[in-house]
Write a structure and sequence with these properties.
294 residues, UDP-N-acetylmuramoyl-L-alanine:D-glutamate ligase, two-stranded parallel sheet, 36% helix, 19% strand, globular
Length: 294
């Protein structure tokens, strides 16, 4: 039986809050729409996010809700075990109406929206349809990170960003071993084309772990971006970093290929850190070669 001597404890915001943390490093104003409790963990989460300048005006704090907590036990750089405390709970009807009202009042001030699905019960078809419809009407960028276990019909977003396994599941295709190079991976290319049609989005960005990323757009050949990771310590939260950087780049005027390159650089940095870490703006800038100096 393993015995662990606790030397240090730290708290980090995870899940969709980790996307917000990453986005806050690249954007001045970040707002969360979610559900949290008023328990001890909810208080810690609130303090963490507010200290980082993340706005919680669209978060419902419900005394009856137990804030999700995941405890990771790490020996040196190796995770020994993770203990999850969570329950699948969604908004009540009054809560849904309240957060959507706040979202609609906030919408004119937003440049982009990220829908991050962890299948914890919060996102359902009605809530998603309402957010997407309002965003389309307002002409906003919407990037979506799906979870295949939650059968939501994503439709009309700007980009959807599954990993390879999620992409195959969402497309209803059996998972195949990766082919190198990915540009010759016929199964992957078929899945990307299927998802473009099914989700009716402008692009699909599939993250491929050590193979980097593949961007699919209508009327264009699939675009492969090789990984930028130098050393991998922990892949936790890499997808959070990717969608945050990709969305921030689109909102800043980058085209999808440029945004995917930026997201790939950001992911390559974050996997070299331990835990659900963030990429700072100066780190991201430094990861690009200085053209003047070759």
């Amino acid at each position: 039986m393993p015995v662990v001597e606790v030397l240090k404890e730290s708290y980090h915001a995870g899940g969709a809050a980790n996307v917000a943390r990453n986005l806050r490093e690249l954007a001045e104003h970040v707002h969360l729409l979610s559900l949290a409790g008023t328990d001890h963990d909810g208080g810690v989460l609130r303090e963490l996010l507010e200290s980082q300048g993340i706005h919680l005006d669209c978060v419902e704090f419900d005394p009856a809700f137990r804030t999700i907590r995941k405890t990771r036990v790490i020996a040196r750089t190796q995770q020994v075990v993770r203990v999850d405390r969570e329950s699948r709970v969604g908004f009540t009807t009054p809560q849904r109406e309240a957060v959507l009202d706040r979202f609609r009042r906030l919408l004119p001030t937003l440049d982009a929206i990220i829908i991050e699905d962890y299948d914890k019960g919060l996102l359902d078809q009605d809530l998603t349809d309402a957010i997407l419809a309002d965003a389309r009407t307002a002409g906003k960028i919407v990037c979506i990170d799906p979870k295949p276990s939650n059968p939501i019909r994503w439709s009309g977003g700007t980009c959807v960003t599954p990993n390879r396994m999620e992409a195959f599941r969402c497309a209803g295709r059996p998972l195949r071993d990766p082919i190198d190079p990915p540009t010759e991976d016929r199964a992957l290319i078929e899945v990307g084309r299927i998802l473009l049609d099914e989700w009716r989005c402008e692009c699909v960005l599939i993250t491929l772990s050590e193979q980097g990323m593949m961007l699919f757009q209508r009327d264009a050949e699939p675009y492969h971006i090789p990984t930028r990771a130098v050393e991998v310590f922990d892949v936790s939260g890499a997808g959070d970093t990717a969608i945050a950087a990709f969305t921030a780049a689109l909102a800043g005027g980058a085209n999808p290929r440029e945004a995917a390159e930026i997201a790939n650089h950001a992911s390559g940095i974050v996997v070299g850190k331990l835990g659900t870490a963030v990429v700072h703006r100066d780190e991201l800038l430094a990861s690009f070669p200085d053209e003047e100096n070759g």
